[in-house]
């Protein structure tokens, strides 16, 4: 293999930023499902603040949809496709197709839980800032 071919191949490989985008793209549907389940629980609860919780949850879902749309668009522009590739033990796998290069991307479930928790905390903090500005 010539020096040029190696450089060309490296240029097709996924970057660290793109890998982060892929990770977020994979996690967002899980976050959306968790928020949906929580909204259903709230709906059937007798909690007197259920309307407020429901509105906050819906706002978070809108942000998740916006982020998913933006990531999908950005990944498409960069010629990156992500497909589910099953689960083994405690790892969830996806196939990443990136500019002719293919790799299997695995995430451990406990890492996913941590990342989901961090992302949800970020979304809730955004809602908190908006509420504080209103008050």
**With helices defined by DSSP (H or I, 4 residues minimum), what is the helix count?**
4
What fraction strand?
Answer: 15-25%
Average of pLDDT: 90
Shape, per Cα inertia axes: elongated
Q: How many β-strand stretches?
A: 3
Q: How many domains?
A: 1
Tell me the distance between the termini: 64 Å
Along the chain, the helix and strand elements come as HHHEEEH
Based on secondary structure, the structural category is alpha+beta
Give the proportion of residues in helices.
55-70%
Main pleated-sheet profile: 3 strands, antiparallel
Strand order of the largest sheet: 1-2-3
Q: What is the gyration radius calculated from CA atoms?
A: 19 Å
- Sequence stretches where pLDDT stays below 50 over 5 or more residues: 1-9
List the helices and strands and how they pair.
Layout: H1 3-12, H2 16-43, H3 50-77, E1 80-88, E2 91-98, E3 101-108, H4 109-134
Antiparallel strand pairs: 1-2, 2-3
Helix pairs in contact: 2-3, 2-4, 3-4
Structure explained in plain terms:
This protein has 135 residues and is of the alpha+beta class. It has helices at residues 3-12, 16-43, 50-77, 109-134; strands spanning 80-88, 91-98, 101-108. The protein has a three-stranded antiparallel beta sheet with strand order 1-2-3. A hairpin with a 2-residue loop joins strand 2 (91-98) and strand 3 (101-108). Helix 2 (16-43) packs antiparallel against helix 3 and helix 3 (50-77) crosses helix 4. The longest helix is centred in the first third of the chain and has 28 residues, at 16-43. The relative contact order is 0.15.
């Amino acid at each position: 293999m010539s020096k040029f071919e190696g450089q060309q191949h490296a240029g097709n490989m996924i970057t660290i930023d793109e890998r982060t985008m892929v990770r977020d793209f994979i996690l967002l549907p899980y976050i959306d499902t968790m928020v949906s389940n929580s909204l259903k629980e709230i709906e059937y609860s007798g909690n007197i603040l259920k309307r407020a919780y429901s509105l906050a949850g819906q706002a978070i879902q809108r942000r998740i949809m916006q982020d998913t749309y933006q990531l999908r668009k950005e990944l498409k522009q960069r010629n990156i496709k992500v497909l589910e590739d099953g689960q083994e033990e405690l790892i969830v796998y996806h196939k990443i197709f990136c500019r002719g290069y293919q790799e299997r991307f695995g995430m451990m479930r406990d890492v996913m839980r941590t990342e989901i928790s961090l992302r949800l905390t970020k979304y809730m903090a955004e809602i908190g800032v908006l509420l504080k500005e209103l008050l």
